[in-house]
Amino acid sequence: MTHVWFFAGLLMAAACFALLEIQIEGPAGWAAKLPTWRLRSKLLTRLFPGRPLTGYHFWIMAFIAVVAHLQFAFGLPWTWSGELRAIAFILLFWVIEDFLWFVLNPHYGIRRFRPQHISWHCQAWWWLAPRDYWVAGAIGILLYLASRPEQQVIVIAMRP
Fold this sequence. Notes:
Layout: H1 2-25, E1 38-39, H2 42-47, E2 53-54, H3 55-73, H4 80-104, E3 125-126, E4 129-130, H5 131-146
Antiparallel strand pairs: 1-2, 3-4
């Protein structure tokens, strides 16, 4: 049941955030028309081919990373398993959120989810989706599988 809750929560969070981003960006994806800074470098070009790192995206990525780690601030003890699951959440969140941004955006939709319609993803498009989806999705799934929760020990005390 843990898997169901994890992926249901992931899907709900990604859908809500995609809808919020559609309200903010409209048809101009990757913050193209937002008043934000844009940073380019060789390293960033490898991470974000065809698009600069924007202040908008830097801060929303930081926000989601903080949200994924709130479980520890709320009292859940930090463990490697929990950390792997938090990182898996972050990676899978961005893949799902980005895809939903296109599917739910009235200016795109599933029919326009093609490299020729998405200038900021077209330089790194692999088969049916942007390279980022394949790489982050695979790493996210592997980290999730590696994050097997620790065995819970339930102690039942019986009176003699």
